[in-house]
Structure formats: structure tokens, C-alpha cells
Amino acid sequence: MALQLWETLKEAITVYTGLSPATFFAGLALGLAVYYLVSSLFGSSDRQSERSSRAFQEEMQPLPPPVQVGEITDGELKSYDGSDPKKPLLMAIKGQIYDVSQSRMFYGPGGPYALFAGKDASRALAKMSFEDKDLTGDISGLGPFELDALQDWEYKFMSKYVKVGTVKKTVPVTDGSSTGEPAEEATDRNVDKPAENGHAENPEVETTTESATGADANKE
User: Fold this and answer.
1) Whole-prediction pTM value?
2) CA atoms of 107 and 78, how far apart (whole Å)
3) For the purposes of burial, counting CB atoms within 10 Å of the CB of 100, is it exposed (0-12), middle (13-18) or buried (19 or more)?
4) Where is average pLDDT lowest: 15-19, 34-38, 72-76?
């Protein structure tokens, strides 16, 4: 029975397509392969576009309003480098802190300027340096062109981002006298200090007194 069906199918393929059964089935297999290949390509493209659309929607979600942090130290500023997604992304220029959360793709983790986040990167921006030694707010010794470049960066940040605080400046501790009084005042106080035990510290007065006592003794 099965053999009769196969013979009938072969005759029908030859009559209706003009192809031999082997050629017909080879072409059918090739068509199925092309179909699965094309559907897989379009299917992956659709999934990729869906993921891109979802990521774009997440980026387009409104950011929370900037939060004022006030005056904080360099150490406290480091906690706003983007490693914690719940915290805003902050960066400082010339001691002024700005919220750069809207540019997370540049200053956030993985961004081209991620090393500037959570720091006062004034010197690095002025020199356009990515070295760790320049990631500081110290701008001493910079040339006029570097200072102009830093000024341009500051204008850009002022016009684009919201200022949310300042970096607390550390005052270096210098060694000095515990009393803190000037040396001249201390010297004057020592000079004006009366002699102990009621004795005068003027040798001429003592010499004159001794001479008068000796003269009185001679008269007697």
C-alpha cells in the first residue's frame, strides 16, 4: 500500500512540476532552509529593536529633581560617582558641584568621562588629561591656555547642569606656638616683668647704693 502511494506521488510530481522526484525534494529542502534562515534574521532583529526601544524608554524616563548636598568633602563626593544607581551623579569644577545625572552615558560607569565623576576634576579638564595625578581640584601652576580651557568647561557646566553644592576646603595645619601670641609681645612682656623678690635689675643703681654706703662708713 505504501509502495503504491509512493509510486503515485512520484508520477504526480513528474506530471505537475516536470521535475524528477529527487530534484523536487532537493528544492523543497532548500526552500525550507532559506525560510528558516530569513525568519531567524528578522526575528532577532525584531527582538534587538525591542530591547533597544525598552532601553530608550528607560533613558527617557524623567530624572528626579536635583538634590542639594551642601558643602561636602572630597571623600563624600566620591560616593556620587555613579556606582550606586540610587544616588545622583555628581562632579565638581573649581569647587562647585554639579548634578550631571542627565549625561550618565558620558560620566556614568562605562562612559568616556566616567573617571571624572565623583571628583573635582578641574586640573584634568584644564589639561584634558586622564591621568590619576590630575584628578584634583588643585589648579596651581596651570598656564593661561589651560585656565581658559577650564573656564570654558565651567561655563558649559553652569549653563547645562544644576549646581547642588560645594567642596569643603581643607585648611592645612601649621606648627606654631601653643599660645599663638606674637614673639614681639612675648618679648615685651618679659622686659616689662618686674624682678623677682623686689630686687631691681639695674646694675648702675646697685653700684651707686654700694658707693654711698662705703662713704658713710669712712666718715664714721
Assistant:
1) 0.54
2) 13
3) buried
4) 15-19
User: DSSP states of 39-102 as a string?
Assistant: HHHHHHHHHHHHHHHHHHHHHTSPPPPP---EEE-HHHHGGGSSSSTTS--EEEETTEEEE-GG
Sheet (strand 162-167) strand order:
70-72, 162-167, 96-99, 90-93
To the nearest 5 percent, what fractions of the chain are helix, strand and coil? 60, 10, 35
Distance CA 80, CA 130 (A): 19
Q: Around Cβ 129, how many Cβ atoms within 10 Å?
A: 14
182 grid coordinates: 606674637
Say whether pLDDT at 59 is over 70. no
- Residue 114 neighbours by CB under 8 Å, 6+ apart: 81, 82, 107, 108
Measured distance CA(93)–CA(83) in Å, rounded: 20
